[in-house]
Amino acid sequence: MRIGLITGGGDCAGLNAAIRSVVKHAVGAYGHSVIGFRNGWKGVAEGDIVPLTRQHIRGVLPLGGTLLGTARYHPHEANGLDAVQTTLEAERIDALICIGGDGTLHAASKVAERGINVIGIPKTIDNDVAGTDASIGFHTAVHVATEAIDRLHTTAESHNRVMVVEVMGRHAGWIAVNAGIAGGAELVLAPESPFDMDKVESFLRHRHRAHASFSIVVVAEGAAPKAGTSMQFEVELGRYGEIVAGTTGGRVASEIASRTGFDTRVTVLGHIQRGGTPLPADRILGSRFGHAAVEALKTGRSDVMTALRGERVELVPLAEVAGQVKYVPADLLAVVDALA
User: Fold this and answer.
1) Which residues pair with 278 in a beta bridge?
2) Which of 11, 94, 126, 196 is catalytic?
3) Could you give the CA distance from residue 268 to residue 143 in angstroms, rounded to a whole number?
4) Which residue positions form the known binding site for substrate?
5) Is the pLDDT of residue 241 over 80?
6) What is the assigned CATH class of domain 2-137+278-321?
7) Does this chain's domain 2-137+278-321 share its CATH topology with 139-275?
8) Which of 26-40, 104-118, 165-179, 237-251 has the lowest mean pLDDT?
9) Binding residue numbers for ATP
10) Which CATH architecture has domain 139-275?
11) Does the active-site annotation cover 133?
């Protein structure tokens, strides 16, 4: 079998572990050949290929990023599906393994509709891919965010400041909620729960008056004020529809400072959450997903995505998860509120 492999969307820690697993298992166990496409779906549309052998993946396990490169290019939105199909046929690709987030996997489902064998592997630091308990990159991103909050605690207390920490999470607040709990933040503002700045102000005033002279407020980039409340704003978007880093955190910090008079600073973690050495959890998850993708092809499965369900890796239909968002559940949001 001749297997194609891509990584699409934003980079994250653990991608190289998944690539390595696919190559080692496909080549070592079954004698398949693996062809990588550079820069995600864009590389498929343009026929930008690189052979992947055991030599190519030597030493990549602890490395962040992706050795194949990546790009935010969705062929179903850029009239590129014909070019993708032409390349796959020209390169005699029997099946394509796509490692990516919602956009990449949505594109994979569109390619699968053309009769091409496709296996999806979920990765996103936002952890918002539906159908799986965890996606590659999430654990490392939460670790980075938690470490930053830990460091900000000491400087916040030393200077009697309110520290606003903006983390990624446009549609879902998985990083904000988990890092907020792990880092002991006083407030977490997530997309799932629109906030009321009057209540934020009241909480901070009471806290600083009663028992503390500093606070940590974690803000997901996609957090938004509740309709009809005193603070309203529209999030600024970039050229690809992404939220401009620092927009939400900056506005929240400015509003807190102007309302309370407290010395308030903002820290935008941005792409720091994506990069660096992957935690063991992401190396293991990437390795398990890569192995499962190859096994799925061996058993004749296609048009499915690998998914972590409890302790098991299972296969779910791409059509059921493409275009869907996994939100933070109410019980986990309740933990944040209880620990305020």
Assistant:
1) none
2) 126
3) 15
4) 124-126, 161, 168-170, 221, 265, 271-274
5) no
6) alpha beta
7) yes
8) 237-251
9) 10, 72-73, 101-104
10) 3-Layer(aba) Sandwich (3.40)
11) no
